[in-house]
Amino acid sequence: MKTLEEAYQDCHTIINRHSKTFSKAFSLLPSPKRKAVWAIYSFCRSVDDIVDEGDDPENEIIAFEKEFLLFLENHPNLEKSIWIALHDVFQRFSMNQDAFLDMIKGQKMDLVKNRYQTMAEVEEYSYYVAGTVGLMLLPVLAPDNHLRLTEGGKALGTAMQITNILRDVGEDIERNRIYLPMDLMDKYQVTEEQIREGKVTKSFILLWEEMASRAEELYQIAFQSIDHYPLDARLPVKGAAYMYRAILNSVRENQYNVFTQRSYVTKEEKQKILAQL
């Protein structure tokens, strides 16, 4: 069995590999909180990878959920780093179990649904797969007052997922998924065929910007409560929020090419954002 420190380091490797934005922002946290973020991210990544890359995702996600339910009953699989690390996190912090279960529920949605009719449906999905992450992190980031930060935490996670959707249109259509709501596609006369062909039209840009404006509204809701985080978490949360929001401008700078070019925030831009906080 791996030691606790080895388990946390495995989780650290995962966050470094898959999300340099989160890794960079939360590297500013004191050690116990920082390691907890690594473990929570690894949980989320594990579920996401099952759905997107699993050989048998339907059965694999059921098996993972059973493992988590056993974990909640204090029977963790101590052969896996994720459960070793999370066991320590659940011992140290008053974790929100429902948020973890909701995350799994949201990932299951990708197995049965690949089109969305309205922005409200997109936001509901975004809550389940990402707003939940905000709720998972809150007891770690703000142990003494996390309940009063619930709205802002959910808003931030949801805004980040809408940002992901707007960045990853091309990747998603390759998996036969369209998260752009059908009613907005109809409003701007953007067709599925145009998306499959990767056409950046004026109509597509208008649709993209309407969704981006909703993401911006949610970021603003999150920003309103950020000053209520304890000092040691305030800068990391602000950093993560501003760095993620900057992805929207990266897409704009790339002329809205979300089909053949992946937009990201450069290391230099991240440093600049952190310096301005």
TrEMBL record:
Keyword Lipid biosynthesis attached: no
PROSITE patterns reported for this sequence: SQUALEN_PHYTOEN_SYN_1 (PS01044), SQUALEN_PHYTOEN_SYN_2 (PS01045)
One GO-annotated biological process of the protein: carotenoid biosynthetic process
Pathways involved: Carotenoid biosynthesis
GO terms assigned for molecular function: geranylgeranyl diphosphate synthase activity; squalene synthase [NAD(P)H] activity
Pfam families with a match to the protein in the record: SQS_PSY
Superkingdom per UniProt: Bacteria
Keyword vocabulary terms for this entry: Carotenoid biosynthesis, Transferase
Name of the featured protein: Phytoene/squalene synthase family protein
